[in-house]
Specification:
It is built from 21 helices and 18 strands. It has about 525 residues and is an alpha/beta fold. The strands form 5 sheets. A 6-stranded mixed sheet has the order 7-18-10-6-9-8, sandwiched between helices. Strands 2-1-3-4-5 form a 5-stranded parallel sheet, with helices on both faces. Strand 4, helix 4 and strand 5 form a beta-alpha-beta unit. Helix 6 packs antiparallel against helix 7, helix 7 packs antiparallel against helix 8 and helix 9 packs across helix 11. The mean pLDDT is about 90.
């Protein structure tokens, strides 16, 4: 039973209110001064305290900090006759749970109690009911989705429900949502398999913006409209992670655009990010600049020339006169150094910042037990992302950019997915090591379990040799070799990977933030 303490010097006049609450099932005790209240709170753990502000002897505002010393987490509802703003400010500043002005009616008090004592239960019940009502509509949309925009809408709705339900105590409804998301990903994979070739070769009005088109069609037009814009590309950044950090930016920016684009296959940095900065598909990069493209089986860094790719793209698009900067941050001290030297970004017509932290975090989760424990599931991964961002130099950087009135574009080269289902393949020594795609000349696999591309040039991918094939994992599958398969399965199951086909990897957020001082 919920225990409530009501402190008021006119407590005799409140008997009807107290009787009403007792009839609703609450155990209510009362006293008429702050001194007694402090003693009672010290002896009894109440679930909620209702505290009158204007009492003789010790006022409510004087009693409140003494109560907080003893029971710092107990919610306190302040009740007062005064509507003076300074009293309200003091009460709110003292971290009260609610503020009621006399005369209060019983239902008003009951509503405040429910909000502060039963909030989690009520939110869980209502959210569960709302999702059950939405479940059928989402299921129907899986069967009628006919273009990429439809799938973006489905992905957004499912992600929003994941976030709404992440604090729910109803395990059953979370399982239902997880099953529905698996079903959605299965249908999305079929959709990509049917349409990917046409997206590359026979584009239509329904075709999505792909990685190699992003700079010309989305990013540069924003930079043209808002001189001094900053592109922030966060590796492995998913829509749910954007949702996790977006509230922290609300005081500094308005969201002008909240949209998506489609990452190319493989959804891996080597392919997708190079395509963004070059404005070309990987095959075209390999043919036009063979000294700047390394295939999977070749030694060396696969993303060394992004700045050169961007310089070429800006020149070709008539923007060679721009003053622009390019920074790639892979270590914490680089972020601090950029903040210290932010004037160079202020002086630029266009600035690009590539931030690799989430990619590092994904790999650390695979390799480090404690990180794996801290990010057990997507909700925990979102929480860790928010915590990192809140204390990062990146957040400092964004606040400084807002003060300067700079428009910021936030996006990624691809997302990432938590894998759990092993699919066995065989290949020779030159087969690529990625768990979500493989490329090589002697691959053996079950063609029904993967998306196979036997002629890579047909989807604008380079070949390591004349007989190279690409295969891509679906949904939450990951590709393992028959040799020592059990060890690899144990090691990589429940890790975050990218390179294959899923909503999380291919449907990439594209966000444009406008600083509030310009709004």
């Amino acid at each position: 039973m919920v225990k409530i303490l009501w402190v008021d010097d006119e407590v005799e006049l409140l008997k009807p209110h107290i009787l009403f609450l007792r009839q609703k099932g609450y155990e209510v005790e009362s006293c008429n001064n702050g001194y007694d209240a402090i003693e009672m709170v010290a002896e009894t753990a109440y679930d909620l305290i209702i505290l009158d502000e204007m009492m003789p002897g010790m006022t409510g505002l004087e009693t409140l900090p003494r109560i907080k010393e003893v029971r710092p987490t107990t919610p306190v509802i302040m009740v007062t006759k005064s509507e003076e703003e300074n009293i309200m400010d003091k009460a709110v500043g003292s971290n009260i749970a609610d503020y009621l002005i006399k005369p209060v009616n019983p239902n008003q008090v009951l509503l405040s109690i429910k909000k502060n004592v039963h909030r989690q239960q009520l939110v869980t019940e209502q959210t569960t009911a709302d999702y059950r009502a939405e479940f059928g509509r989402i299921s129907a949309s899986l069967q009628t989705a006919s273009n990429f925009a439809d799938w973006c809408s489905i992905y957004r709705r499912l992600t929003n429900w994941e976030i709404e339900l992440e604090h729910s105590t109803d395990r059953g409804i979370k399982e239902v949502l997880a099953y529905q998301k698996v079903e959605a990903n299965q249908e999305f994979c079929k959709f990509v398999r049917r349409n990917y070739y046409d997206w590359i070769n026979r584009r239509s009005d329904d075709s999505p913006v792909l990685s190699h088109m992003l700079m010309r069609t989305r990013i540069l037009p924003v930079a043209d409209a808002h001189p001094g814009s900053v592109l922030l590309l966060i590796d492995n950044f998913r829509y749910d992670q954007w949702r996790a950090i977006s509230s922290l930016l609300r005081g500094y920016y308005d969201v002008e655009t909240d949209d998506f684009y489609c990452a190319i296959l493989p959804t891996a940095t080597q392919y997708a990010r190079n395509a963004i900065f070059a404005g070309l598909m990987p095959l075209a990069i390999d043919r036009l600049m063979p000294d700047k493209w390394l295939n999977d089986n070749e030694e060396g860094g696969k993303n060394q020339y992004e700045e050169e790719f961007l310089r070429r793209l800006l020149a070709q698009s008539g923007r060679s006169a721009w003053r622009w900067t390019f920074d790639k941050l892979v270590r914490p001290e680089q972020g601090r150094r950029l903040v210290d030297n932010i004037r160079r970004i202020y002086d630029a017509d266009f600035a690009v910042i590539v931030y690799n932290f989430l990619d590092i975090l994904s790999h650390a989760r695979t390799e480090t037990d404690i990180i794996r424990e801290l990010t057990e599931d997507e909700a925990a991964f979102r929480s860790l992302t928010r915590s990192w961002f809140e204390h990062s130099d990146l957040f400092t950087l964004l606040r400084l950019l807002a003060e300067q009135g700079r428009t910021v574009i936030i996006t990624s080269d691809h997302g990432t997915i938590r894998v759990d289902n092993p699919v066995k393949v065989t290949g020779d020594r030159e087969t690529s090591a990625n768990l979500r795609y493989k490329t090589g000349r002697n691959l053996a696999y079950n063609a029904r379990e993967v998306y196979e591309v036997q002629r890579p040039e047909e989807v604008q991918l380079p070949s390591g040799n004349l007989t190279s094939t690409y295969i891509f994992a679906y949904n939450s599958d990951f590709l393992v070799y028959n040799n020592d398969a059990n060890r690899h399965i144990r090691y990589y199951r429940n890790t975050f990977q990218h390179g294959g086909i899923s909503m999380e990897e291919m449907i990439v957020p594209f966000i444009v933030l406008k600083p509030k001082q310009q709004a």
